[in-house]
Design brief:
With about 80 residues, the protein is α+β, with helices and mostly antiparallel strands. The protein has three helices and four strands.
Length: about 80
């Protein structure tokens, strides 16, 4: 592993072909047992001359399994 490997992995060009955000999103989906919330890099935004507007969580279509016990098998 070299410093160059760290850089290319950080932008999703390494051996796994996934960005850190994609991995975090997948891990959060598993931890929430299929409930998916769109990730954001910012907590909110403020347009000049207006008030700060925090981002509200955006729920995506959940992942539904045929047998909910499979979540426990994967998580534990």
């Amino acid at each position: 592993w070299s410093p160059a490997d760290t850089i290319i992995s950080g932008i999703g060009q390494g051996f796994m072909q996934a960005t850190p955000m994609q991995l975090a999103f997948a891990t959060a989906t598993l931890a929430n047992r299929g409930k998916r919330i769109m990730p954001h890099l910012l907590l909110g935004e403020q347009i000049p001359g207006s008030l700060y507007q925090p981002f509200q969580p955006t729920e995506l279509t959940p992942i539904v399994l045929n047998d909910n016990q499979n979540w426990e098998r994967v998580i534990t």
